[in-house]
Design brief:
Strand order of the largest sheet: 1-2
Shape: elongated
Number of helices: 4
Low-confidence stretches: 21-38
Distance between the termini: 59 Å
Mean pLDDT: 79
Strand content: under 5%
Oligomer: single chain
Helix content: 55-70%
Length: 189
């Protein structure tokens, strides 16, 4: 795995850990307390339905980015093609992983393992959020700008007041002269 992929997975792990930690009351700037609601627990069947909805949204994002990539390729925009191809690859990985998590969620629910089911559902939710982020980044991919319109032409002007080049002092080296390296007189053998 590349280092950036590992860092992304580590980031996803910490995001999941942050979402599972219970929220504490904080004070707002005026000294009052801000209340946090705990994420609503879904039933196992509702988690499956929501997982299917999230995967469908991820697949829709894949289709949208794929269409953008095809348009960039058709326009021979190399910069935008590379950017979109990278985003599409990452979205595909997240979508495949989400499908695997959905199967794990189904398995956990069939064994009545609520803790594992909640974990799989949370990871799936983070993957959907990552896909949304990647889709937004794909929409920001910029391509090459058409800066040259028409044929490029270069014109050179020489200042007539400059003196002409002086080629009279140049002499070709004599091919009969042989240069040898001087011998070392202070060296002892």
């Amino acid at each position: 795995m590349r280092l950036s992929s590992k860092l992304k997975w580590i980031g996803a792990f910490f995001a999941i850990a942050a979402m599972t930690v219970p929220a504490f009351a904080q004070t707002d700037g005026a000294g009052g307390q801000v209340a946090f609601q705990k994420q609503q627990q879904l039933s196992p069947q509702a988690q499956i339905v929501e997982a299917d909805t999230q995967i469908a949204r991820m697949e829709q994002s894949t289709g949208n980015v794929r269409r953008q990539l095809e348009a960039a390729r058709a326009g021979r925009d190399v910069v935008k093609t590379l950017c979109l191809n990278d985003k599409l690859s990452q979205i595909d990985v997240a979508t495949r992983s989400a499908k695997d998590r959905r199967q794990s969620l189904q398995l956990a629910n069939s064994r009545n393992d609520a803790e594992l089911g909640n974990h799989e559902f949370t990871v799936l939710t983070v993957l959907r959020q990552r896909t949304e982020q990647l889709t937004a980044e794909a929409n920001q991919c910029i391509g090459e700008e058409a800066t040259l319109i028409g044929e490029a032409k270069v014109t050179t002007t020489v200042d007539p007041t400059l003196p002409p080049d002086d080629d009279t002092n140049f002499t070709a080296p004599d091919p009969n002269i042989v240069l040898t390296q001087p011998s070392c007189t202070s060296c002892s053998n």
